[in-house]
Amino acid sequence: GKFILLLSLLLISTTGHVCYKHEGADWETGACASGSRQSPINIITANVREAEDVELFISGTDITTGSILYHDHELKVTYSGATAKYTSEDEDSEWALAQFHYHAPAEHRIDGKTHDLEMHSVFVSKTNPGQLLVVGVIYELEQGYEDDEFIASLALENLVSNPTTGHIENVPMENFYNKFSNTKMYNYKGSLTTPPCTESVEWFVVKEIQKINPSQLGRFTSKWAGLSTFAEGKGSNRVAMDLNRRKVFVTGGEEFMGSFSFSILFIVFLVISVMQIGLAGVFTLKLKSPKNATSQKFAKIPEKDKIEGTERLNADYNYPGVSKPPHKYFQRSISKEI
For each successive 10 residues of the chain (338 residues), what is the average pLDDT? Predict the structure, then answer.
């Protein structure tokens, strides 16, 4: 367990200084320039496909006490108290959290729009430490919005000088991850967004954009986009990369469960309707059967059966749909008047 975590940290750690002056467009390290499955991307929502068989459940425990690192482009918490369970038609796997960090502005674009902040939670496969799963949460500025409890617990106001390691405690990781467990997420295959841009990442980007007020957003932007000495104030986000025929899906969440429930209800309604039609048919057949045809007590003797000078009991005739009357009743039929 510890060996896998240490190995994964080596794989996802960025070596040396990362220059964002050109938003990563000039990076040559690793797969950054030559890769075909690079991240981040611009997610075109009209082209997203539904993936009804994919679910991602995340659970975590609160950080009682820990530390947060601010160094150049990094604002990172190393923490292993959370897990992710990924299920699909072809896979059932578990992942352990290695760390979470931030980028400002946000890295993934939604329909061409760049939002204000993005958090990345980096999970490592428990069976293959070379495989990563990253959950992105995007924030946008909203005036007058209340303080986010999770962001407030990171005590960012204490991270002034570069570099700084700050103390954090009582970070509500459980509530934070519960909020995003199996919610609607965009899902695609990509890479790390910093060198060496390794293409071994299963990306999940939370569909619902979160809110952040100016005061809390300023704790991030003051270190990057709002700091002229950092990449000339361009921020710590990489330029959007080509999709290169990759497919982007949307997974999980209430909408999916709603459509699933609707499908079940529709099937139940269809079965009940068919049963009602079947019962109605059986009831109709019973009404047409001789046993139920009691509205006419006697049968008229057809013209062809009239016999001159004779009389017959109606009971002698057995015509469809007619019940036999008691023998005390009879019907006289004379062919000629005398």
Answer: 48 68 94 97 97 94 97 96 95 96 98 98 95 98 98 97 96 97 96 97 98 98 93 95 97 56 49 59 51 46 48 45 46 40
Q: What does each C-alpha distance from 150 to 63, 80, 114, 155, 224 come to in angstroms?
A: 11, 17, 23, 10, 21
Q: Which residues contact 240 (CB under 8 A, 6 or more apart)?
A: 40, 41, 42, 108, 109
Tally of CA atoms within 13 A in the half-sphere of 285 that contains its CB: 6
Report whether 325 contacts 295 (CB < 8 A): no
What does the CA dihedral 103, 109, 114, 115 come to, rounded to 10 degrees?
Answer: -60
Q: How far apart are CA 266 and CA 127, in angstroms?
A: 41
**Helix (H) or strand (E) segment spanning residue 135:** strand 132-141
The full length of the chain comes to 338
Alpha helical stretches, state H, the chain: 2-12, 149-152, 173-180, 214-221, 253-288
309 by DSSP, 3-state: which? coil
Torsion of Cα atoms, 105 then 110 then 113 then 115, to 10°: -30
Pair type for strands 63-71 and 74-78: antiparallel
Rounded Cα distance, 225 and 220, in Å: 8
For residue 4, the cross-strand partners are none
47: left (phi over 0), alpha (psi -120 to 50) or beta: alpha
Measured CA to CA, the distance from residue 39 to residue 55 in angstroms comes to 21
If you ran DSSP here, which 8-state letter would residue 37 be given? S
Amino acid at 9: L
DSSP per-residue letters across 67-90: EEEEETTEEEEE---EEEEEE-SS
**In b/e form, how buried is each residue of 52-65, taking b as 16+ CB within 10 angstroms?**
eebbbebebeebee
The whole-number pLDDT of residue 315 equals: 43
The contacts of residue 221 (CB under 8 Å, 6+ apart) are 104, 116, 227, 235
User: Tokens 């057809």 belong to which residue?
Assistant: 302
Peptide bond into 326 cis (omega under 30): no
Q: Are 281 and 307 in contact (CB under 8 A)?
A: no
Place of tokens 């209430």: 254
